From TrEMBL:
Stored InterPro entries: DHH_sf
Taxonomic lineage of the native organism: Bacteria, Pseudomonadati, Pseudomonadota, Gammaproteobacteria, Vibrionales
Protein name: Uncharacterized protein
Originating organism: Grimontia marina
C-alpha cells in the first residue's frame, strides 16, 4: 500500500512550515526529519512505497539524486524551501515553491500559499530563523501587540535552539516528537497555555546554555568579523546556531562564525553574514567540504582540522567592515 511522507528540517522553520500545511490539509503521513544540520533526508524515502512526498526547508541541491529517483518512479513531490536549490528539474510530478531571498524562510513561503491562515505559526518559524525585521513587520500588520510578538519570538528562538546538535541525543526533544506535540494546536498561544511543561523545558535549557555561551570570548577578531570557538560538549552543540544569531543581532555590521569542536577532530561551523550585508555565507560555506546554506546564514558540518585556519582566513577576508 502506498503512503505519504513529510520530510522537513528539524528546526523552527521546518517544523512550523509543516504545522501550517497539515493544519490546513490534514494527512496521515510518515515523518522524516532529524537534527537541523541533517539535511540529506530525502534518501530515506522508499520510492517503492511512496505515493507523494512533501519536502520543507531542505536544500534541493543536497538531495537532488534522491529527488530524481523519486520523480523517475512516479512519486508526486511538493517542495517548498528558501535555500539555494541548484538546478531545479522540470518534471510534471514536481511542484516547487522556492524563494532564496535573504528576508524570507520556508514558514513564510507556506504562509503566503495559505493566505496567512496560520500566521502565528509562520511567525514562530520566521522568528526562529532570525527573520526578526520581516517577522516584526508581518506581526504588526496582523495586529499582534508587542507582548504577543515577544512571546512568539521567544518561542521561535527556543524551538530553533532545540534543533541544533550532532545527534538526537543532544536535543531536549526530537523534532518529530515536538512536531507531534504541537500538531493539534491551531495557534502557538494555545500550545504554550496547554503544554507549559514542554515550553518550560525549552526555555530552561536555552537559558542555561546561553549563560555558558556568554562567557566565551572571541577566538579570532578583525574589523568587521569575529570567530568564536565552542567546546565539544552537548550544551555547546545545542546553543551554537542561536548563539550565532544572537551575536549577529547585537552588532548588525559584523559577521560572526561560531566553530564547535567535534569528538572526531573536525569542526562544526555556523556562519552569519552581517545583518546590514546579508550575502555570501552560502558561497563561503560551499567552498569547504560539507558546507552549504543560504545567503545570510550557512554552515559546515565537518570542517577538517587541517582546514581550520584556511576557513578563518577566508571568513575574515569575505567580511571586511563595509560602510
Amino acid at each position: 500500500m502506498k503512503t505519504s511522507f513529510d520530510v522537513f528540517n528539524g528546526d523552527a522553520d521546518g517544523i512550523c512550515a509543516l504545522l501550517q500545511l497539515r493544519l490546513a490539509t490534514p494527512k496521515d503521513s510518515v515523518l522524516i526529519t532529524g537534527v537541523k544540520r541533517d539535511i540529506a533526508l530525502l534518501k530515506q524515502v522508499d520510492p517503492a512505497v511512496a505515493q507523494d512526498v512533501t519536502v520543507l526547508d531542505v536544500a534541493m541541491e543536497k538531495n537532488r539524486a534522491a529527488l530524481d529517483n523519486l520523480l523517475t518512479q512516479g512519486v508526486r513531490v511538493f517542495y517548498a524551501d528558501h535555500h539555494n536549490p541548484g538546478e531545479v528539474p522540470d518534471h510534471p510530478s514536481l511542484t516547487t515553491h522556492i524563494n532564496t531571498a535573504a528576508n524570507t524562510c520556508t514558514s513564510l513561503i507556506v504562509d503566503k500559499l495559505l493566505d496567512g491562515r496560520y500566521r502565528e505559526w509562520a511567525l514562530v518559524g520566521a522568528y526562529g530563523d532570525n527573520m526578526i525585521a520581516t517577522a516584526d513587520t508581518l506581526a504588526k500588520k496582523s495586529g499582534l501587540c508587542d507582548q504577543d510578538r515577544v512571546k512568539l519570538m521567544q518561542f521561535g528562538t527556543y524551538l530553533n535552539y532545540n534543533g541544533y546538535g550532532s545527534s538526537l541525543s543532544d536535543l531536549l526533544f526530537p523534532p518529530a516528537e515536538i512536531y507531534r506535540l504541537m500538531a493539534a494546536y491551531p495557534s502557538p498561544f494555545n500550545f504554550i497555555a496547554e503544554r507549559p511543561d514542554v515550553y518550560a523545558t525549552l526555555e530552561d535549557g536555552f537559558t542555561g546554555d546561553s549563560e555558558k555561551a556568554a562567557a566565551i570570548t572571541p577566538y579570532s577578531e578583525r574589523t568587521g568579523s569575529r570567530v568564536f570557538m565552542l567546546p565539544d560538549e552537548a550544551w555547546a552543540r545545542r546553543i551554537s546556531g542561536v548563539y550565532s544569531n544572537d551575536l549577529t543581532n547585537r552588532d548588525p555590521e559584523v559577521a560572526n562564525a561560531v566553530i564547535t569542536a567535534k569528538a572526531d577532530g573536525n569542526y562544526l561551523v555556523s556562519i552569519r553574514a552581517p545583518l546590514k550585508n546579508r550575502v555570501g555565507a552560502d558561497e563561503l560555506a560551499a567552498a569547504f567540504p560539507t558546507g552549504g546554506g543560504r545567503k545570510a546564514a550557512a554552515g559546515i558540518n565537518a570542517l577538517p582540522a587541517e582546514l581550520l585556519n584556511d576557513f578563518i582566513d577566508a571568513f575574515h577576508q569575505r567580511y571586511p567592515l563595509t560602510t
